[in-house]
Amino acid sequence: MIDNEEYLTYKEICERLKVDRASIKRKIRGGYWLAGTHYVNPPGMHIRFCWGAIKRWMSTQSSPKRSKLADPSINPETELPPHFRNNNLTKQ
User: Per-domain residue ranges for the chain?
Assistant: First the structure.
């Protein structure tokens, strides 16, 4: 563990991100958050989450739907998947 990093418990990370514990576990099981980078499990302690690494990870995430819809060069009628076409999200 790095001394100047802030490490959070499950309860604390859930409160900061406003999600339930199952959402956090899905990030771990899905390989989105990596042991030694996003969380640690020190001997004799429960898992701790590295807040700095989690914030960096969040800053790299974007919603493909939002970025495609925000790009004016993309024609939503032909370049988006069918389930995104002809709905309120694509109307200008």
Answer: 7-60, 62-92
Which residues is 48 bridged to in the sheet? Answer: 40
Instruction: Give tens-digit pLDDT for 11-49.
Output: 999 999 999 999 999 999 999 999 999 999 999 999 999
For every residue of 23-49, DSSP letters joined together read HHHHHHHTTSS-BTTTEE--TTS--EE
Stated pTM of the model: 0.63
Ramachandran class of 86: left when φ > 0, alpha when ψ lies in -120 to 50, beta otherwise? left
Residue 34 to residue 27: CA distance in whole angstroms: 9
